[in-house]
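User: Can you help me understand a structure? I only have the sequence.
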Amino acid sequence: MLAVLLLATAQSQSPLPAPPPTPMHDITQVDAAPLGGAIAVPLPERERKKLARYDIPELAGSRQAIGSQRIDGRLPRPLVDYSAATSDIYQRLSIFEGGLVVVEVSGAGGTIRKKLIIPDDALKSYVHTISPSALAAVHDAELSKPRDARRSLLRAYDGQNYVERQFDPMARMPKALSDQIVPLQDLLRAIYQDRAVTNTVAGYMPKAGDQLVGDDKKIYKVVRVVNDKIVELHCLSQPTIIYVDVKDLYNYFIGTPGAASR
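Assistant: Let's start by predicting it. Here is the structure, written out as tokens:
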């Protein structure tokens, strides 16, 4: 039996507010969805209502990382690298010159890979707080060693050189290290929750034949776009048709098939 869903019922949770205006782009600028991936962690209803009223402050002024992020033809140099692993989840956040931030999270809920560009003032703040000299002031003797499957690493770069500290993420941290870790954890949490600036489907203008991966991990094909506003999509694995407003696509889709089609 054919199921036809309107955009309001395309997923169980209500849409988040539209992201700030962003330059429109085609399917070639939409990232591939990771295998078994998601675009954001599920939020309690109270948090979703809060997000509907307020911006996420850690992402204020950030913009999409669309296309190549090379600088003068080369890859951007790393500035800060933070990772934390337990038996259940692995998370990593890397900050590069130019303000590029890349996040990867994997665990029982699937894989999240995201990127965005933070504004210059935010970049300067992170690099000032998490510098090689600040990290060098944290002595290994103050830290609880990684144990079992628990391991965290913080690395601050100075050109080709870097300073790093490894420690147990569940143990109490000295203040000098906590002052550097907490801002990164706040940024990581904000990126987890965001569905707009970190989703390259935002600002995407669909055309017939394009394929997208939904939050339900199914692949949908764009059949037509009515008046550049309403998109008709057909599920490729079951007889389902959904209709979504172009500006709301980022609420329901996480990328192009790529790895998700395997």
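Now, to help you interpret it: The CA atoms of residues 73 and 249 lie 32 Å apart. DSSP finds four helices and 13 strands in the chain. Let me know which part you'd like to focus on.
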